[in-house]
Amino acid sequence: MSLNFFWVIMHLLIITGFLGSGKTTLLLRLAELAQKQEKKVAILVNEVGEIGIDNQIMKQLGFNVSELLGGCICCSLAGDVIGTLERVQKKYQPDFVLLEPSGAADPRNLMNILAAYKGIPFKSLIKAAIIDSVRLDMLMKVISPLIITTMEQADLILINKADEASSKELDKAYNIALKYMPSNKIFKICAHDEIEPDIIRELLPWIV
């Protein structure tokens, strides 16, 4: 069957962010919520290395996981992104897919690959960037191009670790995010805790 057949029913949420920002924690929380709503969700993750520790945790929780190991989904394995999504759709027929690229990846590469398939009828594509409010000031000094690109490529920005950060850190993170997301699509969260309904509606409009 053609690629278009598989993609016509696919919703896709991409969660980007630097290493340690809380992507996997948020992804698992969203997946659990989707399953409570009796939605079938597939999780596509990428880790640089030979063993996917987070992937094993996800599998133990009963989620469908398609692993891309040994390289970066936006770099050395980028050519397989479309094929992997096709195989996930064909095998599991999920209501939607949660995609977590490597935290060291430039999200522009992934977006360029997906943009090349504009003719494929996505039902929807949402891009969320999660940033670490505790480390953001330091990261902006060291790898600002990657952090800025991550925010610029997103449809919404999630300022994570609101429970750990000081009010000064949260305010600074918000002001930085506002430079690259000049709208109301900036939210403060704690990925370990319950996510507010209005944020869930932004991330998963298909289940609420």
Strand content: 15-25%
Number of domains: 1
- CATH architectural type: 3-Layer(aba) Sandwich
- Please state the CA-atom Rg, rounded to the nearest Å: 16 Å
Name the overall outline: globular
Following the backbone from N to C, one meets helices and strands in this order, namely HEHEHEHEHEHEHEH
Q: Which assembly state applies to the chains in this document?
A: single chain
Reading off the top of the CATH hierarchy, the class is best stated as Alpha Beta
Main-sheet strand order equals: 3-2-4-1-5-6-7
Average pLDDT rating: 83
Alpha-beta content class? alpha/beta
Summarize the amount of helix as a percent range.
40-55%
What kind of sheet is the major sheet? 7 strands, parallel
The strand count comes to: 7
The CATH homologous superfamily is named P-loop containing nucleotide triphosphate hydrolases
Alpha-carbon distance between the two ends: 31 Å
CATH fold topology:
Rossmann fold
Total of DSSP H or I helical runs spanning 4+ residues: 8
- Low-confidence segments: 1-8
